[in-house]
Amino acid sequence: MQKYKFLEHTADTKFQAYGNNMGEAFSNAALAMFSVITDTKKIKKKIKKEIKVKGTDLKSLLYNFLEELLFLLDTNSFLLNKIEKISIKKMKGKYSLNATVVGDKADNYETSGDIKAVTYNEMEIKENDKVMVQVVLDL
Questions:
Q1: What is the pTM of this model?
Q2: Per-residue pLDDT tens for 55-84?
């Protein structure tokens, strides 16, 4: 199965990420986001970080997850190689996500461009037998 694909967008970057479940689709969205600035396959697995985010719905959870990864990029120069573990739970109508992310410091790799923010613009989450999430990044 294809992990993600980029779609045409006038000024920003738009992609769809896929998975057999919500966690896999969120993980592939994170990989797609980092692939905008670097080749994630070349990032060494030197640093592990735990991420915990909450959301009132799945869209806010996806937004908060990707924004947390951008925060790690901006504050710790963290580049993602993979999501080692991810867990999404719904309790009392709200969502929580716990993930272990693996990567390395950006100092050791070529990067191009800059991601300013994740947006809610054209964000979609579709769940059938597979899951598709769509995200637009402000560059």
A1: 0.95
A2: 999 999 999 999 999 999 999 999 999 999
Q: Bridge-partner residues for 91, per DSSP?
A: 94
DSSP letter, residue 134:
E
Please give the C-alpha separations between residue 113 and each of 73, 116, 137, in angstroms, as whole numbers: 13, 10, 12
Instruction: Please give the structure tokens belonging to residue 80.
Output: 């993602």
* 59 burial type by CB count under 10 A (0-12 exposed, 13-18 middle, 19+ buried): middle
CB distance 115 to 33 below 8 Å: yes
| Domain chopping of the chain, boundaries | 4-138
* Domain 4-138 -> CATH class: alpha beta
The beta strands (E) that lie in the chain are given as: 4-7, 13-19, 47-55, 78-91, 94-105, 117-127, 131-138
